[in-house]
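Deliverable D5.2: sample structural annotation.
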Amino acid sequence: MSLSVALLAIACGGGEPAPSVGSALIGTIEVDGSSTVFPITEAVAEEFNKEHRNVQVNVGVSGTGGGFKRFIVGETDINDASRPINASEVAQAAANGVEFIEFQIAYDGLSVVVNLANDFVTCLTVEELQGIWEPGSTVNTWNGVRASFPNSALRLYGPDPDSGTFDYFTEVIVGEAQASRSEYTASADDHVLVRGVSGDRLALGYFGYAYYIENEDKVKVVAVDAGNGCVLPSNETVASGEYSPLSRPLYIYVNSKSLEKPEVKAFVQFYMREAAGLVREVGYVALNPDEYEGNLSNIQ
């Protein structure tokens, strides 16, 4: 027996097979950010851990903005984001020596929802939504939205200001990111919003399409009219852009230095290989296969 073979046999415990590269990975990966992207990353982490049990993947939900606050100072390896990183965050990352790579991983459509008992709302125009949500809005009753609606209180539920969903909705509906009325029940947890709308027959709220799909037995989705007729969110209308203006891309941002760690690189590569199936599984719209292949190339 050669010396190299003998040493391999000793290292592997005699007849035991040598451990695979995957099983030899060890370490901790810190992820934070968007509650919208969370179900995708959590699903990826669960599958990844089946192959790499010695890698701990911590996935937090601080909202896109809250996650970026940690990411741009180097506290996390990956940030889940439901909007692109903004200029201020880019500048702060550069000042802190944090370089990063952006990966688009899916599409999502924001869903406008009401209580299941609501029998008078099936579609709202972008103008009506703007009137409800713009700063200083005095629309506090349903007939203030549309004269044919009942004269009943209008109670609102939506993401908090650290959420990328909040940023995107306010930008495309109100016309300015972060511009919103403050009189509403706000939460970074979409499950809290689902419970709020499902328990309040006079409620109106918005959150990611995947959370509607997960809870379509609890809330009713409302079509949106951007000027070309009422369109409901679906995989097809979100991917095509027909569900305008509430279709959006979803991202992960990866700290370039973190990619030097084998466990992080392996996780991001696994993410891109498995994303398409897991994205669909949790209710979002997957990219084309060549887009995931492009992401894999960028990791190199």
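Annotation notes: Residues 108-248 form a domain with the D-Maltodextrin-Binding Protein; domain 2 fold (CATH 3.40.190.10). The longest strand covers residues 100-115.
The annotation will be released with the project's public dataset once the embargo ends.
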